[in-house]
Write a structure and sequence with these properties.
3-stranded antiparallel beta sheet; 5 strands; elongated; two-stranded antiparallel ribbon
């Protein structure tokens, strides 16, 4: 337990506790990279149908094209966030960026129980990225 005292004019501030930085989280697993690559290969760029959401489970990623009940459990990435009209072309453009691909891999690892990341916050960030790609980057 390290102690450090700073003196600011006449005020003394004392910090106690562990001042060492936390260890970085482990990198995403190889299996999550395989699952994301399989999903990327399954997307059809010529299909103009709007994707409503992506359902991410521990062993697959499934695009949903209709607003129906899901038979899959898992994390849902909303592709209609703020009125986005995302197609497979937009999702593929999203996956070309390393930080978005990493977020999807973190969701897969969280569904597998191997990650400390919160899958819902990662899904919300991906929903915002899908909105950006379908609204602004497509022009």
């Amino acid at each position: 337990m390290a102690k450090k005292t700073n003196k600011l004019n006449n005020i003394r501030i004392k910090f106690s506790g562990d001042l060492a930085p936390h260890a970085p989280p482990p990198p995403p697993s190889h299996e999550s990279n395989v699952i994301v690559a399989k999903f990327e290969a399954s997307l059809q760029t010529e299909r103009a149908t709007r994707i409503v959401s992506l359902i991410v489970t521990s062993n697959e990623i499934v695009p949903r094209y209709r607003r129906t009940g899901s038979a899959h459990g898992g994390t849902s990435v909303d592709a209609t966030f703020l009125g986005a009209h995302a197609t497979a072309k937009h999702v593929l453009a999203l996956l070309r960026e390393p930080h978005n691909r990493l977020s999807l891999r973190r969701i897969v690892d969280a569904e597998r129980g191997m990650s400390e990341y919160e899958p819902l916050s990662e899904a919300k960030m991906l929903a915002g990225a899908i909105y950006y790609h379908s609204t602004f980057a497509a022009r």
